TrEMBL record:
<dbReference type="InterPro" id="IPR052228">
    <property type="entry name" value="Sec_Metab_Biosynth_Oxidored"/>
</dbReference>
<dbReference type="InterPro" id="IPR002347">
    <property type="entry name" value="SDR_fam"/>
</dbReference>
<dbReference type="InterPro" id="IPR036291">
    <property type="entry name" value="NAD(P)-bd_dom_sf"/>
</dbReference>
<dbReference type="GO" id="GO:0016491">
    <property type="term" value="F:oxidoreductase activity"/>
</dbReference>
<dbReference type="Pfam" id="PF00106">
    <property type="entry name" value="adh_short"/>
</dbReference>
<keyword id="KW-0560">Oxidoreductase</keyword>
<protein>
    <recommendedName>
        <fullName>Short-chain dehydrogenase</fullName>
    </recommendedName>
</protein>
Length: 263
């Protein structure tokens, strides 16, 4: 029996993956904010950890619990999402989108590294859409105190998650680390603090053009079930080229040093 850990596993694509692996007989750990949504999964071989992953302390608490209760993690799916169009600072003093979409992922990947190493074919699927420019990160302002825009923040996080794969696979060459995004809209509840325009677009476009979460995650299931060591990027089932910068190794190390100094 494999152990599958899914952040954001109470809704959308995360919940679709949880249902699939529970039906397959795997042990699934769901991390999310809603106990009620978890209970709707109705499976005895599932465990729930309540956490707001925009808070570093909640991420660390969840990681500690996973380490206490498991000696191996076969697959780690990082799918938690909450969209904010404006800069927001958490009670801990971190920019909320950076904290949710990168700091939590950094903590899970590094904090669970030995449990992933203990698996025969470990895999991390990071639902950070690949393809951000190599220069998308401002290393002198990781939390974007100056010049924040939704577009810059999104590219900033996505590139950081690609660089995280360099750190993760350097530590564990057997690890499959995948940055992944769907090919098109997914029909799911829209969690976030956004303007009217984005709300209306999501409400209209997703039902018309979006795919079911169960269909969207099929490529992820294939990547988890037949992992290949090393880094890779996908949109749906289609491989995408990894972004290559002039100083990727140095940038990854600089990112890790900057994060460790501030959490």
């Amino acid at each position: 029996m494999r152990t599958i850990v899914i952040t954001g596993g109470t809704d959308g694509m995360g919940a679709a993956l949880a249902r699939h692996y529970l039906a397959a007989g795997d042990r699934v750990v769901v991390i999310g904010r809603s106990r009620a949504k978890f209970d709707a999964l109705s499976a005895s071989n599932a465990a729930f950890i309540a956490a707001d992953l925009s808070l570093v302390q909640d991420s660390r608490r969840a990681i500690d619990q996973l380490r206490q209760e498991h000696d191996r993690i076969d697959a780690l799916v990082l799918a938690a999402s909450f969209i904010r169009q404006r800069r927001h600072v958490t009670t801990e003093g971190h920019e909320a989108s950076w904290s949710l979409f990168f700091l939590s992922k950094y903590l899970f990947v590094t904090g669970l590294a030995d449990l992933l190493t203990a698996a025969d074919k470990p895999v991390v699927v990071n639902t950070a859409v690949p393809g951000a420019r190599a220069d998308a990160i401002d290393f002198d302002d990781l939390e974007m105190a100056d010049g924040f825009t939704f577009r810059r923040s999104n590219a900033h996080q996505r590139r950081a998650n690609e660089l995280l794969g360099i750190l993760a696979t350097k530590q564990n060459p057997a690890l499959s680390y995948i940055t992944w995004g769907p090919t098109r809209l997914v029909r799911t509840s829209f969690a976030g603090e956004v303007g009217t325009g984005m709300k209306v677009a999501a409400a209209i476009m997703a039902p018309l053009l979006g795919q079911r979460a169960e269909d969207a995650v099929r490529p992820i299931i294939g990547l988890i079930d037949t992992p290949t060591p090393g880094r890779a990027a996908y949109r749906g089932a289609k491989p995408r080229p990894l972004t290559v910068g002039a100083h990727d190794e140095q940038d990854a190390a600089r990112l890790g040093t900057g994060v460790e100094a501030n959490i």
